[in-house]
Specification:
By secondary structure, this protein is mainly alpha-helical. It contains one helix and two strands; from the N terminus they run βαβ. This is Dimerisation domain of Zinc Transporter.
Length: 53
């Protein structure tokens, strides 16, 4: 998911934890969820390793 680029890492982590909690709470067949964030509007940092995927 993309988030505003201004929150701190701690704030972004808290957002992710809330999203994971809601997913697990609201989707009964879901036991685990992993959510990853990227700052909105920035270059995709994963481009650096894309050729390894």
């Amino acid at each position: 998911m993309t988030v505003d680029a201004t929150p701190s890492v701690s704030e972004a982590h808290a957002i992710v934890a809330q999203v994971e909690y809601r997913l697990i709470s609201e989707v009964s067949s879901l036991a685990r969820a992993t959510v990853h964030t990227d700052p909105h509007g920035s270059r995709d940092a994963h481009d650096l390793i894309a050729h390894h995927r």
